[in-house]
Design brief:
The complex is a heterodimer of chains A (118) and B (114). Chain A is built from no helices and 12 strands. Chain B has 114 residues and is mainly β. Chain B has no helices and 11 strands. Classes of the chains: A mainly beta (118), B mainly beta (114). Chains A and B meet through strand 5, strand 6 and strand 11 of A and strand 4, strand 5 and strand 10 of B.
Chain lengths: 118, 114
């Protein structure tokens, strides 16, 4: 079965410190990988994605993520956290070649709550 | 430009009633998706539309759930004979419909079944 794991329910970091939110996946085939952020009472906002090419992808609000095929990971990082980064972060994967091809379904992790303390 | 919109934002209904949830995608997006977000279950895929057809309905949990899309635009998710376990936030997303595109989400409809 295809799955995504976010091993930490919550991450706490001090403002100005680097942050990492972890994501690992288990799929058959070559995945597309995504990070979304959800602020309280708001919808999911797209942060960044990996499709192919350079393993380090940069996204919105200073976030970046590194695709590591051997470790099947796609950890989200930011060099210096802001209090306003406090939110729920979701990792998702799509395997386009699955189920006969042109699979569009996103499979999600359960989310990681990031708290940035002033 | 305008993002994905959903209505109503909140819906409270009694067990056994039918409900309709509406999604207006971003203009020009040919693909539309429905997901459900519930506590402890995370986000789960329900159905995907390309134009007005639904190539993937694999996530619909039972035959009480149905969805349609008309004019390649607005979509309605209908839940018949609602049950308490249907309580969740129903999220709609749309995308350009190309192979590597990104799904953009609406604010969701919070459904509470009493």
């Amino acid at each position: 079965a295809q799955s995504v794991a976010q091993p930490e329910d919550q991450v706490n970091v001090a403002e100005g410190n680097p942050l990492t939110v972890k994501c690992t996946y288990s799929v058959s085939g070559n995945p597309y990988l995504f990070w979304y952020v959800q602020y309280p009472n708001r919808g999911l906002q797209f942060l960044l994605k990996y499709i192919t090419g350079d393993n380090l992808v940069k996204g919105s609000y200073g976030f970046e993520a590194e695709f590591n095929k051997s470790q099947t990971s796609f950890h989200l990082k930011k060099p210096s956290a802001l209090v306003s980064d406090s939110a729920l972060y979701f990792c998702a994967v799509r395997v386009p070649g699955f189920n006969g091809g042109n699979n569009r379904k996103l499979i999600w992790g359960l989310g990681t709550s990031l708290a940035v303390n002033p | 430009g305008a993002g994905v919109s959903q209505s109503p934002s909140n819906k409270v209904t009694e067990k056994g009633k039918d409900v309709e949830l509406r999604c207006d995608p971003i203009s020009g997006h040919t693909a539309l998706y429905w997901y459900r977000q519930s506590l402890g279950q995370g986000l789960e895929f329900l159905i995907y539309f390309q134009g007005n057809s639904a190539p993937d309905k694999s996530g619909l949990p039972s035959d009480r759930f149905s969805a349609e899309r008309t004019g390649g635009s607005v979509s309605t998710l209908t839940i018949q004979r609602t049950q308490q376990e249907d309580s969740a936030v129903y999220l709609c997303a749309s995308s350009l419909g190309s192979g590597t595109d990104t799904q953009y989400f609406g604010p969701g409809t919070r459904l509470t079944v009493l």
